[in-house]
Design brief:
It is built from 15 helices and 16 strands. By secondary structure, the chain is of the alpha/beta class. The chain folds into two domains: 31-63 and 345-449, Aspartate Aminotransferase, domain 1, CATH 3.90.1150; 67-344, 3-Layer(aba) Sandwich (Aspartate Aminotransferase, domain 2), CATH 3.40.640.10. It has a seven-stranded mixed sheet with strand order 4-10-9-8-7-5-6, sandwiched between helices. Strands 11, 12, 13, 15 and 16 form a five-stranded antiparallel sheet that branches. Strands 1-2-3-14 form a four-stranded mixed sheet. A hairpin with a 2-residue loop joins strand 15 (415-417) and strand 16. Helix 5 (90-102) runs parallel beside helix 12, helix 8 (195-213) runs parallel beside helix 9 (239-250) and helix 14 crosses helix 15.
Length: 450
């Protein structure tokens, strides 16, 4: 039987991302075989609410038929062609026009297409350096970012990452990358719990680092409008606007990594828009195709695009790209996805259901000593688990795993990352779905607390 085959061969020949191969072989991962609506179905036929939303990307759930049909139709018409110099495809052209309208409010007018999020980050870093070279600022090669920030797995992205877990095993990384403290109220070097005051301290640290490095050596500052994989850290509303001003004052480009936050997850259609900021470059992927096809882009402001398009030297030539940049099937999927996002007004549901979920997490915190902190913005939420609230000592891996198992057995799939239980369900979840997530977490926390 297929079921027996899958269980017997689970983890034997696959190295899983973000996992130790030996651990996966010793404790094989859950096998997901089907999905419907906001639920996934495992190899044993158990139905679970997907509290992870795939990997922050299945915002419209697993039954969005317009996207599936668009993929199928495009496979019949033109399954692939390159958009390298000299050729293009219909879906790619139509999508670029659609995205220029979609991101007009963010001040972004042009698109460079990629295969996914890490590709988009890599592209943004390259374009930032190239922008300054065209302008004659050839010393502007450095990048600044936030500790706890996550920017993917390519060497460029890993180099600007602010979490040692994604860096240590691959060092030395790219030179010229420096991180400052993030506005993380639960843990920060300033021992400051007031979000607004902490933001001001972090901004001072940013200004200090810029002056230390030399403003004329810095190409860009890259940040997530709400930090995601680092533990869901929403900054104070003043933070990103202050970053924007500092970048403008020093001629530094601002890159918004919106791989997670674009397309409604924060309660706004983009995370930058949530804070009233227009970035120079924006990295997007994940929800642009609802996770149904690997696809991404860097959206580019006219401030940046004008420099490239008016250049008469070789520095303006983009010697960068991916075999699957602008893939016609991915572009067709995105073209079908964007109207669904608009029609369903998922950002509004993300805001209301996110408030509901955060309230549930606060109630669980009052009930379980194991919860040190809860955080959230829209349908990005996290519980940080500790073994001691006074010392904030993180919980051990085995105990955190019990929360996952307890919730799984209660019918909800959650994500455990270090001491954090991260929740990012599809943006179409109902109030009843959110209640079920809370009930399952209660079971997981009971198991971990015994």
């Amino acid at each position: 039987m297929e079921q027996n085959f899958l269980k017997e061969h689970n983890a034997k020949h696959v190295w899983h991302p973000m996992a130790h191969p030996a651990e996966m072989m010793a404790n094989p991962p859950k096998i997901i075989t089907e999905a419907e609506g906001v639920e996934v179905i495992d190899v044993d036929g158990r139905r679970l609410i997907d509290g992870v939303g795939g990997l922050w990307n299945v915002n419209l759930g697993y039954s969005c038929d317009p996207i599936k049909k668009a993929i199928s139709d495009q496979l019949e018409k033109l399954p692939y062609y390159s958009i390298f110099r000299g050729t293009s495809t219909g879906p790619t052209i139509r999508l670029s026009e659609e995205l220029s309208n979609w991101f007009k409010e963010d001040g972004l007018t042009k698109a460079f297409f990629t295969s996914g999020g890490s590709d988009s980050v890599e592209t943004s870093l390259r374009l930032a350096r190239q922008y300054h070279k065209i302008r004659g600022d050839k010393d502007r090669t450095k990048f600044l970012s936030l500790k706890k920030g996550y920017h993917g797995t390519h060497f460029g992205g890993a180099s600007v990452n602010g979490n040692a877990n994604f860096r240590r095993n691959y060092e030395p990384l790219m030179q010229g990358c420096f991180q400052i403290a993030s506005p993380y109220t639960y843990r920060n070097p300033f021992d400051e719990e007031d979000p607004e005051k902490l933001s001001a301290f972090c901004i001072k640290a940013l200004e200090d680092e810029i002056n230390f490095q030399g403003p004329d050596t810095i190409a860009a500052f890259i940040m997530e409008p709400v930090l995601g994989a680092g533990g869901v850290i929403p900054p104070h509303k003043s933070f990103m606007p202050m970053v924007r001003k500092i970048c403008d004052d020093h001629g530094i480009l601002l890159i918004a990594d919106e791989i997670i936050t674009a397309f409604g997850r924060t309660g706004a259609l983009t995370g930058s828009r949530l804070w009233g900021v227009k970035p120079d470059l924006m990295c997007i992927a994940k929800a642009i195709t609802n996770g149904y096809f690997p696809f991404g882009a860097v959206m580019i402001s006219s401030k940046v695009s004008d420099i490239f398009e008016n250049d008469k030297s070789s520095f303006g030539s983009i010697s960068h790209g991916y075999t699957y940049s602008g893939h016609p099937v991915g572009a067709a999927a995105a073209l079908a996805c964007l109207p669904e996002i608009s029609k369903l007004k998922v950002q509004e549901n993300a805001a209301s259901r996110g408030d509901q979920l955060l309230k549930i997490l606060e109630e669980l915190k009052a009930k379980f000593e194991i919860i040190g902190d809860v955080r959230g913005q829209g349908l990005m939420t996290a519980m940080e688990l500790v073994s001691d609230r006074k010392t904030k000592k993180p919980i051990d891996k085995e105990t955190a795993g019990k929360v996952f198992e307890g919730a799984y057995n209660a019918g909800v799939l959650v994500r455990v990352s270090g001491p954090n239980v991260i929740l990012s369900p599809p943006l179409i979840v109902t109030a009843e779905d959110v209640k079920k997530i809370g009930d399952a977490l209660n079971e997981g926390l009971k198991l971990a607390s015994n």
